[in-house]
Design brief:
The complex is a heterotrimer of chains A (about 100), B (about 500) and C (about 500). Chain B is α+β, with helices and mostly antiparallel strands. Helix content of chain B is about 40%, strand content about 20%. The longest helix of chain B has 20 residues. In chain C, the strands form two sheets. An eleven-stranded mixed beta sheet of chain C has the order 1-3-2-6-8-7-12-13-11-9-10, with helices on both faces. The chains are: A mainly alpha (about 100), B alpha+beta (about 500), C alpha/beta (about 500). Chains in contact: A-B, A-C, B-C. The structure holds zinc ion.
C-alpha cells in the first residue's frame, strides 16, 4: 500500500474537520502506517468477489412507525445545552 | 440565444406535506409558523443516543410518486448517510439514499412526457430518493453569502423530502419550467405535496454549455425562477465562453431578489460524501403486494385528467393542459361545469380571465375559490348566456369579486353594469317610493300622468338603472292594488 | 453481620418489600463503600449526591405504600456514561460532552426506573467507548479493585469496577467489541453482550451502531439474569430492535443442563499468543465442564484472525460518521462562533473536544469510507464479516456453544499498553467476534490465577441467552466463583 502517512493524515483530518497539533500529527503518523498494514491483513483473503458484504444484522420484521404525532421537547430542553442563542434561535457560525 | 448546445438536469426536492409527522421521528410536520426550535425531539435535533424510525406513510408516498413517474421501484428500501458539515444539519450527515453497493434509491429509471407548445418531449427520471430536510438558517446580518453568523431553527429538520433527479434531458429554460410545472401538478394530484406551502418544492439545476463544465445552481423555489436562473446562466456562460474564458465546475446560488446567480464559497477539498448504509436503519422489503395495492389506489393523474377533459368536456387540449397544471384550478373548473355546464366557455373564462387575475392579484387558487366560489362564477356565466351582461362586463366584475369577495350580483348592480329588472328587487324600491311620496301616490291615483313623478323617484333611487318598462308596470300594479281593482291577469 | 449489598438482588428486593426502611440502610452502606474505595478505584464520572438518592428512596417508599412493585426496588444501579440519563450529566468520558445534560432517558434507563431501580451514578469508560482499558477516559483511569496498579479493562471499566468493589449492586455497560466482557473478565464479574437487537440502543451514544449492545455486568448469574430480563425486549424507538417480547430468563437458572450441551473450542484461539495464566484458567474451566459430562471438542476456524482488522475497519467507519455531530453548536464543548466560518469553528471544537484515540479512529474511519478506499477496506471488511458469520452458523449447526478465552492476557498494568494502539487493539481479538456476527456472548470468571480473576467467554447462536445463562450458572455452581470479593473491599 503506497500511502504517504503524512499526506494521508493531512487530507483525512481536513475531511473530518479535526485540527491536529504538531505533537498529535507526529504520534498519529507514527502508528498510522502500522495500523493500515494491520487493516491490509484482510487483503490476504482472496476470492471475495461474490461474497455479499454484511452491513448489518439482517432483520426479519421491519420496525416502522405509524404516522402519528408524538411529543416534542420543550424549548427549555432544546436550549439547555446550547451556549450561544438569540431568543429561541441557536446561534451558528457563518456559512459564507 | 444558442440553445441546442445546452444540457440541463434538475434535482427537485419536494416535501411530503401530506404526512402528519417527520420522516424519522414523531414531531409534527406542520413546522411553518411555529416559534423557532419548538418542533424538535432528540432524534431530529441529532442529540447523542437518539435513533431514527421510518414513517411508514413516507414509504407509501414515495411509491406513489415513483409509480406516477413510471419508475422501477426497488424491492429493498435502504437509507444511506451522506456526510458533510453544515450548521443546518444536526448530525452533520443527512439520511438519504444512494445508488451503490448495498445501497439503492427507492426508485429509478422513470420518465415524464412533456407537451411543449404541441411538441412532445420525454424527460427521463434518473432516480427518486427519500431523505430528511435540514433545519432552516437565518442570516441576520445579510445573506447566505455575507452574514457574519447564522441563527438556526431546527423545526424543519427531519421533514420527509423526496428528491427527484432527472437525466440531463432538458435543453431550454422553458422546458425546465414546463417540467417543474408538470411535476408540481403530479404531486398535487397525488396529494403528496401542497405546492402552495412556502418552500415545499425547491429545485437545484445543473447546466452546462458545449465547451464548458457543469454548473450547479442551488435553491430555486419557483418554476418561474428556474426559468429565469437558467436563462441567466446561459447568457453568463455563453458570454464567458465567447470571450475565451473557462467555465469551471462550480456551485452557484440563485439570488431570487436580484435575479442573478452568485458563486458559493469554493470548498477546499473535493466533495467526498462517504456514503454508507445507515446502520441504524435496517433495509426494509418493499413487496410486490404493497406496490400493487398502492397502484390500484392511485388517484387520477394529470395526463389522464387532460385526456378526460378533452374527451368528456370537449374542450381543447390546450385548455385542458392549462387547467390541469394546477389541480385546484382544474377542480374549480369541474365544479363550475357541474353547476352551469358550458365547459368550453367556463374553461376559457377560467383560464384566460380568472387565472390571469388570480396571478395578478397574487392569490392562490384556493384563496380565489373562497372569494369567488364556483356558484358565483356560474351566476356571471348565466347572465352572460342570457345576454344580461356582455363578456366585457364579466371581465370587469371578476377582479372586483376577487378583491372584495362580494356577491357578484350586488357588484353588478352597485357598479351599474346592468338594468335592474329583477321584479322583486324593484318592487321593494317601488314600495319605498310609495311610502315616502304619499301625496304623489294620491295624485297618481287620480291622474295617470302623475305616475311619471313616481317613476322618476324610482330612477333616482336606482341611479337610473331601473328598467323603465318594468318600473312602469310595477307602479301601475301597485296603484291598482291601492284602488282595490282586480289585478291584471297574468 | 453480612452487609446488605452482599446479597443478590432478588433476595434484597424481597427484604425491601417487607421492610422498606432497609433500602435506606442499604443506600448508606453503598455510599459508605464508595467513600472508602472510590478515591482509589475511580469507577464513577458522576456520582449522584447521597441526598438526591435518599430523596428518590423516599418517593419510592411512598409508592410502595400505594402498591408499587418493581424487580429492582431500591437497588443501586450504576450506568455507563455513554447511556443517556435525563437530567444527569452524560459525558461519554469526553471533554466534548463534559457538561452535557440529556433531556431524555435511554430506553434501558426507563426500564430500570420503572422497576424501582435507583441510578446512583454514571461510570467511567474509555472516551466514546474507544478502548479496552478505560485509560482513554478524558478524566482519569479506573483501577482494578483486585490490583490497583492494573487496569479494570474497558471500555466499561467503571461499571465493572463499581460492581466488583460493591460501589453498586449491578451496572450497565455497552459492548461494541468486548467492552462489557473484557472488564468483566478483569474484575471477576459476569458480563453479557446480548444478541444484536435484543436490547434497545435508544439512548446509547453511538460508537459503532451495527456492532454494539447494552448489557449487564453483575457479581453473579442471578443478578445478571434479572437485569437482562428487564432491559431486553422490543423497543419501537430502535429500528434495529428485534420483535422479542418474552424476556424472562429466570427459568434458565437451573443447576442441570437444559439440553445435552456440546461445546466447541476454537483451536486458533488457544494456540498462540495466549498468556500462561489465561491458558491455565481456561483449561481449568474446560476440565470442569468435562467433569460435568459435557462434551468439549476442538474445532478449527482459520478465518478468525481476520476478525480483528475487519472489526476495526467497520467500527472506525461507523464511528467517524457517528461522531460528526459533535460540533459544539447544539450541545457539548463550545467555542464562540463570533464571525467565524463553520469549518473553522467546528475544527477547533473537535480538536479540543476529542482525545487522541478518538481522533485516530475518526481519521481511520474517514479514510476507509473515502472515495478510492471504500471498496478496498470498508466493503472488504464487511465481506469478511459475512464469511465469519457463515462460519459461526456452521459451527452452531453442530455445537451449542463456543468457549474461548475472553482476553489473551490478564489485566495489564496501568500505562503498560496505552502507548501502542495495535497492542491495545489485540486485547479485543476474541471479543470482537460476537459483535461482528451479532451473537450473544458471556464472560464469567474461569478461575483466579496469581490473585487475579480470569474470564472465560462462552458464545452461543443468536438469541441463545437463556442457554448461555444456563451453562454459565452450571459453571458458577461447580466452581463457586460467584460474588468474588477483591482484596480492596475486605
Ligand atoms: Zn423530531
Amino acid at each position: 500500500m503506497n500511502i504517504d502517512p503524512a499526506e494521508w493524515v493531512e487530507r483525512v483530518s481536513k475531511l473530518a474537520l479535526i485540527n491536529l497539533s504538531e505533537e498529535e500529527k507526529k504520534l498519529l503518523i507514527k502508528d498510522m502506517a502500522r495500523i493500515i498494514d494491520f487493516f491490509n491483513m484482510i487483503n490476504e483473503l482472496k476470492g471475495l468477489d461474490d461474497v455479499e458484504p454484511l452491513f448489518m444484522m439482517p432483520r426479519g420484521e421491519p420496525v416502522l412507525r405509524d404516522d402519528e404525532v408524538g411529543e416534542c421537547l420543550s424549548i427549555n430542553e432544546v436550549l439547555m445545552n446550547v451556549k450561544e442563542k438569540e431568543d429561541r434561535f441557536i446561534k451558528g457560525p457563518r456559512t459564507a | 440565444m444558442v440553445s441546442n448546445n445546452v444540457v440541463i438536469g434538475l434535482e427537485i426536492h419536494t416535501q411530503i406535506t401530506s404526512l402528519k409527522t417527520k420522516l424519522f421521528c414523531s414531531c409534527p410536520s406542520d413546522y411553518r409558523g411555529k416559534p423557532p426550535n419548538t418542533n424538535v425531539c432528540p432524534t431530529c435535533l441529532g442529540l447523542p443516543g437518539a435513533l431514527p424510525v421510518v414513517n411508514v406513510n413516507a414509504i407509501k408516498a414515495a411509491i406513489m410518486v415513483a409509480l406516477a413517474l413510471r419508475c422501477s421501484i426497488s424491492d429493498l428500501l435502504v437509507f444511506t448517510r451522506k456526510h458533510y458539515f453544515y450548521p443546518d444539519l444536526p448530525k452533520n450527515y443527512q439520511i438519504s439514499q444512494y445508488d451503490g453497493i448495498g445501497s439503492m434509491p427507492i426508485a429509478k429509471n422513470g420518465y415524464v412526457i412533456l407537451n411543449i407548445d404541441g411538441n412532445i418531449k420525454k424527460i427521463r427520471i434518473r432516480r427518486i430518493n427519500i431523505e430528511e430536510d435540514p433545519g432552516r438558517l437565518i442570516y441576520p446580518t445579510g445573506s447566505l453569502l455575507t452574514s457574519k453568523y447564522t441563527l438556526i431553527d431546527y423545526n424543519r429538520s427531519g421533514i420527509a423530502l423526496l428528491e427527484i433527479v432527472t437525466e440531463p434531458d432538458i435543453s431550454t429554460p422553458k422546458e425546465a419550467k414546463v417540467f417543474i410545472d408538470k411535476i408540481r401538478s403530479i404531486l398535487e394530484h397525488l396529494g403528496i405535496t401542497d405546492p402552495n406551502l412556502e418552500g415545499s418544492i425547491r429545485v437545484d439545476a445543473n447546466i452546462s454549455l458545449a465547451g464548458g463544465s457543469r454548473v450547479e445552481v442551488k435553491n430555486i423555489s419557483s418554476p418561474k425562477d428556474v426559468e429565469r436562473a437558467l436563462a441567466y446562466e446561459i447568457i453568463r456562460q455563453s458570454k464567458m465562453l465567447g470571450s475565451g474564458e473557462v467555465v469551471r465546475r462550480e456551485t452557484r446560488h440563485w439570488d431570487s431578489v436580484r435575479k442573478v446567480t452568485v458563486p458559493l464559497r469554493a470548498k477546499e477539498l473535493e466533495e467526498d460524501y462517504r456514503y454508507f448504509p445507515d446502520p441504524d436503519l435496517p433495509p426494509i422489503k418493499i413487496t410486490k403486494e404493497l406496490i400493487m395495492d398502492i397502484a390500484s389506489k392511485l388517484p387520477e393523474l394529470p395526463d389522464q385528467r387532460i385526456e378526460r377533459f378533452v374527451r368528456s368536456y370537449g374542450i381543447s387540449e390546450y385548455l385542458a393542459n392549462v387547467l390541469v397544471l394546477e389541480k385546484s384550478l382544474a377542480d374549480y373548473f369541474e365544479e363550475c361545469v357541474g353547476i352551469c355546464g358550458n365547459p368550453e366557455l367556463v374553461g376559457n373564462i377560467v383560464v384566460n380571465d380568472l387565472k390571469r387575475w388570480i396571478d395578478e392579484l397574487n392569490l392562490e387558487v384556493i384563496e380565489a375559490k373562497k372569494l369567488l366560489p364556483a356558484n358565483q362564477l356560474c351566476k356571471l356565466i348565466q347572465l352572460l348566456i342570457n345576454n344580461s351582461i356582455n363578456i366585457k362586463i364579466l371581465k370587469e366584475v371578476l377582479p372586483k369579486a376577487l378583491r372584495s369577495g362580494k356577491d357578484v350580483i350586488s357588484i353588478i348592480y352597485e357598479e351599474g353594469y346592468m338594468d335592474i329588472s329583477d321584479e322583486k328587487m324593484l318592487m321593494k324600491i317601488v314600495e319605498e317610493v310609495f311610502k315616502e311620496n304619499q301625496q304623489a301616490v294620491k295624485d297618481a291615483l287620480d291622474n295617470p300622468k302623475a305616475i311619471n313623478y313616481l317613476v322618476g323617484q324610482v330612477m333616482k333611487k336606482t341611479k337610473g338603472r331601473a328598467n323603465p318598462s318594468i318600473t312602469n308596470k310595477l307602479i301601475t300594479m301597485k296603484l291598482a292594488e291601492i284602488r282595490g281593482t282586480p289585478k291584471n291577469d297574468r | 453481620m453480612k452487609k446488605l449489598i452482599e446479597n443478590n438482588i432478588t433476595y434484597l428486593v424481597e427484604q425491601f418489600y417487607s421492610n422498606p426502611s432497609l433500602i435506606e440502610e442499604y443506600i448508606h452502606e453503598v455510599y459508605e463503600v464508595i467513600g472508602k474505595v472510590e478515591d482509589r478505584v475511580k469507577s464513577y464520572i458522576t456520582l449522584r449526591p447521597l441526598e438526591d438518592v435518599l430523596d428518590e428512596f423516599r418517593k419510592l417508599r411512598d409508592r410502595i405504600k400505594y402498591g408499587f412493585k418493581g424487580r429492582l426496588l431500591g437497588i443501586a444501579v450504576a450506568v455507563k456514561d455513554c447511556i443517556v440519563t435525563r437530567g444527569i450529566r452524560t459525558t461519554c468520558a469526553s471533554r466534548m460532552l463534559q457538561d452535557f445534560i440529556p433531556p431524555y432517558n435511554a430506553t434501558v434507563v426507563e426500564r430500570i426506573i420503572n422497576e424501582g431501580g435507583i441510578i446512583i451514578g454514571k461510570t467511567n469508560m474509555d472516551e466514546f467507548a474507544m478502548g479496552s482499558t478505560t485509560e482513554n477516559s478524558a478524566f482519569y483511569v479506573t483501577r482494578n479493585p483486585w490490583d490497583l496498579s492494573r487496569v479494570a479493562g474497558g471500555s466499561s471499566g467503571g461499571s465493572a469496577a463499581a460492581v466488583s468493589s460493591r460501589e453498586a449492586s449491578i451496572a450497565l455497560g455497552s459492548d461494541t467489541g468486548g467492552s462489557i466482557r473484557t472488564p468483566a473478565s478483569y474484575t471477576g464479574t459476569v458480563g453479557m453482550k446480548p444478541t444484536y437487537g435484543l436490547v434497545s440502543r435508544y439512548g446509547l451514544i453511538a460508537y459503532a451502531n451495527s456492532l454494539e449492545q447494552i448489557g449487564p455486568i453483575a457479581r453473579n448469574l442471578s443478578d445478571l439474569t434479572l437485569m437482562l430480563s428487564i432491559i431486553s425486549g422490543h423497543d419501537p424507538k430502535d429500528s434495529t430492535s428485534l420483535k422479542i417480547y418474552d424476556t424472562n430468563y429466570d427459568r434458565y437458572l437451573s443447576k442441570a443442563p437444559l439440553k445435552n450441551y456440546k461445546i466447541a473450542v476454537i483451536k486458533e484461539c488457544i494456540e498462540q499468543g495466549v498468556d500462561r495464566a489465561v491458558m491455565q484458567a481456561f483449561n481449568r474451566a474446560i476440565s470442569r465442564f468435562e467433569s460435568e459430562g459435557l462434551e468439549v471438542t476442538e474445532v478449527s476456524m482459520p478465518l478468525i484472525k481476520y476478525g480483528l482488522p475487519a472489526y476495526y475497519i467497520i467500527a472506525d467507519a461507523e464511528a467517524s460518521s457517528n461522531l460528526a455531530r459533535y460540533d459544539g453548536i447544539r450541545y457539548g464543548y463550545h467555542v464562540g462562533v463570533g464571525e467565524r466560518s463553520y469549518d473553522d469553528v467546528y475544527s477547533e471544537v473537535r480538536s479540543y473536544g476529542f482525545g487522541l484515540e478518538v481522533k485516530r479512529r475518526i481519521l481511520l474511519g474517514t479514510f476507509v469510507l473515502s472515495a478510492g478506499y471504500y471498496d478496498q477496506y470498508y466493503l472488504k471488511a464487511l465481506k469478511v464479516r459475512r464469511l465469519l458469520r457463515n462460519e459461526f452458523v456452521r459451527i452452531f449447526n453442530r455445537y451449542d456453544f463456543i468457549a474461548i478465552p475472553t482476553t489473551p492476557t490478564p489485566p495489564p498494568k496501568v500505562g503498560e499498553a496505552i502507548d501502542d494502539p495495535l497492542k491495545l487493539y489485540l486485547m479485543d481479538i476474541y471479543t470482537v467476534l460476537a459483535n461482528l456476527v451479532g451473537i450473544p456472548a458471556i464472560s464469567i470468571p474461569a478461575d483466579i490465577v496469581d490473585g487475579l480473576p480470569i474470564g472465560i467467554q462462552i458464545l452461543g447462536p443468536e438469541l441463545s441467552e437463556g442457554y448461555l445463562i444456563n451453562i454459565a450458572y452450571i459453571y458458577e455452581e461447580i466452581s463457586k466463583l460467584r460474588d468474588l470479593t477483591p482484596p480492596l473491599v475486605v
